[in-house]
Amino acid sequence: MKPERRALTVEIRAKGRRLEGYAATFGNPAEIGGRFVETIARGAFAATLSSRGDILALVDHDPGRVLARTRSGTLRLSEDSKGLAFALDVPDTSHGRDVLALAERGDLGGMSFGFTAIDEHRDGDRRELRAVELHEISVVLAWPAYDGTIIQARSLETGAPFRLYAERTLKLLELSR
């Protein structure tokens, strides 16, 4: 099976040299290439997370731009009721500094993940991912596939969200419905 990639607009927070947020959210429909609508079921990442395999954090799915990995402990992943939560320690590299600067400004496109579907349910043009083998998560600099959540960056000095960006994003989401 060929690995797949999905991207979504999610909440991301910059806290010092750490990014936190969600790489995937449950039950959030996404139109995939105009071919079908896909959702992720709760628990879809459970088997991968319990296997303790090495999962990477990349920039735009590029293996030449590694930000963190689970094997070294610089990437931490968990599932909660909302989705696949992550925390990654951003390296002091050109890629890491670029990602942090964009996160702090609210300019990141979202998050993405690379996976192989293990268990899925199809019903016409709908697909539900019930279990996936997770290979990597990626910071997406431009356009994600999944919409519906907000990217937020928190400033190092105050910890406050960039409210104007969040408010503008919410208004755009409301208008698009």
TrEMBL record:
- Where does the source fall among the domains of life? Bacteria
Signal sequence segment: none
One Gene Ontology term of the molecular function aspect: peptidase activity
What are the Prohead serine protease domain coordinates in residue numbering? 15-157
Keywords attached to this Swiss-Prot or TrEMBL record, sorted alphabetically, are: Hydrolase, Protease, Viral release from host cell
Keyword Protease assigned to the entry: answer is yes
GO biological-process terms attached to the record: proteolysis
Entry-linked Pfam families? Peptidase_S78
Q: Write down the NCBIfam families for this protein, in alphabetical order.
A: proheadase_HK97
The protein's name is Primosome assembly protein PriA
